[in-house]
Write a structure and sequence with these properties.
mainly alpha; 6 helices; extended
Length: about 150
């Protein structure tokens, strides 16, 4: 075992579609390619619409504003709710993923620490990082994080 828990998100999706633990089936590749192409086409279309509408008006439009202008209030609300649900789900999955992988790593130091304790421990870090609005402030930290990832591999 590599020590990485792959039950969440896209990794879990791949494991679900694979016929065995070691082989990736053609269904996985085709499914991910179709989803990737659909997402790319949708994002390119949305960006083109945003750029076109931004040229017509001097206001800086958000993607919710673009959907509001093109499809109406109902779809703008649907977009906002979808983004909120996706972000919430991504955060929950990331919290579980990190706590699942920290628990075995630090179990020798503190065997009685539960997974929920790791979630509570990393919450202030995530909240602090969420207040940073510009990537230029965390560029150096991100560089060292990438080096540590490469060192771990």
């Amino acid at each position: 075992s590599s020590g990485i828990n792959a039950e969440y998100g896209v990794l879990g999706f791949l494991a679900y579609l694979s016929p065995s633990d070691t082989a990736v089936s053609w269904r996985v590749v085709v499914c991910l390619m179709v989803v990737s192409i659909m997402c790319t086409i949708s994002m390119v279309c949305l960006v083109k619409c945003k750029n076109h509408l931004s040229q017509q008006s001097s206001a800086n439009l958000s993607y919710s504003d673009v959907v509001l202008l093109l499809l109406g209030r109902k779809w703008s609300i649907v977009l906002d709710l979808t983004v909120i649900a996706f972000q919430f789900g991504a955060v929950v999955i990331y919290f579980v993923f990190v706590s699942e992988n920290l628990t075995p790593y630090f179990s020798k130091l503190s065997p009685e620490t539960a997974r929920w304790a790791w979630m509570l421990f990393i919450t202030p870090l995530y909240i602090g990082l969420s207040w940073i609005r510009s990537m230029k402030y965390i560029g150096v930290i991100s560089f060292f994080a990438e080096l540590s990832i490469l060192g771990g591999i």
